[in-house]
């Protein structure tokens, strides 16, 4: 049985300057639920993730709650420490730092954890990273950089783990490997929001999905129902 909500977004509007990118978004994620956010290029998926994480731009109005706590007035770093963790689009790692240093940075604000143990746990999740522990992150393959970005995000201690287009530009086998790691997280009870262009993978992972079009929610529902919905294809074809 679901107990309460992990994340709730109410009447969220987001703007770049005067231009409105999100219009009245309502979204709820239950604890342990995996939710997919789908839509064409420019629909507002990244803007929604950034708004929840408190990153600027955009500028947002509306309510964002982590469990019972209003977080929409909090700066991004406080939201991250509170457990709203975004792995941004484009596998952003620090290219000049080693794999290990990147991982250490993920956990920098956490107190009372055994960092070495936590990092070892990431190497169990992503064995490829262990082989590259002392390499500069910029020298990793695209897939390995994305795994590093995910591992770093996990070390931040997420309560809600948001993944923005994790499969972008990666080979199919690597995408399978990544999504297998997300599936493992889901089984462990992590609350996940995944944005993806490849709706198939995201929908297979997710319990529920939201379909965005031009900054508004066109439809939401059980992932297997959305997967069959003609609006899904229409939304993607309707992109810029
Ligand atoms: P993509 O898959 O391309 O990332 P998306 O669904 O994530 O698409 P957003 O990137 O959130 O869409 O863009 C939503 C709208 O906001 C688009 O109209 C886009 O042009 C606009 N937008 C995004 N970023 C900015 C920005 N930094 N400045 C101005 N407008 C922006």
From TrEMBL:
It is found in: Cell membrane. Keywords: Amino-acid transport, ATP-binding, Cell membrane, Membrane, Nucleotide-binding, Transmembrane, Transmembrane helix, Transport. One of its GO terms (biological process) is L-amino acid transport. The keyword Isomerase does not apply. GO terms for cellular component: plasma membrane. GO terms for molecular function: ATP binding; ATP hydrolysis activity; branched-chain amino acid transmembrane transporter activity. It comes from the Bacteria. Involved in beta-(1-->2)glucan export. Transmembrane domains (TMD) form a pore in the inner membrane and the ATP-binding domain (NBD) is responsible for energy generation. This is ATP-binding cassette domain-containing protein. Residues 7-239 form the ABC transporter domain. Its main location: membrane. Belongs to the ABC transporter superfamily. It comes from Bradyrhizobium uaiense. The keyword Membrane applies. The chain holds residues 589 to 828 of 842 of the full protein.
